[in-house]
Amino acid sequence: MDLLIRGGRLLSGERADVLVEDGRIAAIGAFPAAGAREVIDATGLVVAPGFVDGHCHVWQAPLRGIGADMTLPDYLATVLGPVLGAYGPREAHTATLLGAAEALDAGVTTVLDFCNVTTTPEHTDAVLDAYATAGIRAVVAHNDPDDVPEARRMAGLSGRVTGALAILGTGPGPWADAVRQIELARRLGLLATMHAGGGPGSPLPRMHHDGLLGPHLHLVHVNQMTDSEARMLADTGTGVTVTPVVEATMGHGASPFSRFAAAGGRAGLGTDVAVNAPPGLFEPMRDTLRTHRAATGGMVPAGRVLAAATADSAQAIGLGHEVGSVTPGRRADLLLLDGLAHLSGEAELTGAIVTALTPAHVHTVLVDGRAVKRDGKLLHLDLPGLRRAGTDLARAARRSPAVALRP
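RE: above sequence
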């Protein structure tokens, strides 16, 4: 056996060993340490699935905090305009490595990167290399779905880093373009991911009529979706990710999490833009719990929200069969969480993870059974050094003449 995680507690509250072979969870039970290539003592720790960030713009990590008061038009005009234009391949590599390091430190083992910075093949090379170096699981959604050679390259990716297509969508862009891009992604076996709003004038009913909805499509935000649209998305198995912290901060509207849940859907969670949100999914989980309890008028068990950051998020981005739970056969993307030894039972453990923990409680992180964080410290990534490099990058990008002209 490759790895034995010994003596930890599962989310159920039971103590059990987790056996890992070839990067997958092989079995859960009680096993002798003899014969294991590596043993991790998880005594006093809780074994949990790694968090899955279903929507983020990882290249923005060096810009964290610059947009606390940005409206969406401000963001589009500045961050997706001249700041993005100031990124060359080297900047894309540094920024992606920093964002991956911050994610891993917070217990995020998988990201779906809506990767605006894949503007040339060289930029894409830099992003892919950064993810290979970081050791995180990543779905890289290429920013130009009309670049067929690059789309085919995304489809050829396998292993820990895979591809997707980031499309403009049927609201901001022409209908025919969106249809062509969704169909290209479907032919290539890629997920198509897009921002969407829903509500009056929404293209969702037409998309449903034309057979464009389904698990091959991933919608982000959908703050204005109606009850009927929520049922459409749930019934077709269309992936939905909400990003409650950014949606509230930038005024996108109330989180649709509860509306989608009432329709039978299970939304995943994302961090979205770094310009006004922290890394990691602890705060999105807490925000979702608060708004879900307010929307339902009841004390929904806190632990139920944990699935939105793990199994449901994985399902929404097409990885539900690979990650998101501590189950034999799944990839060994796992967390060992500290600070929970005084608790007992599934409700207490899962509820505390949602309501009370922070990245400081993430003791150990494994991706494919390989430790990337141990005893509270990243093993192969110099996070302080990456933050210093990110600071230099952000200052240079914001000094560009085009940015300086912005109010």
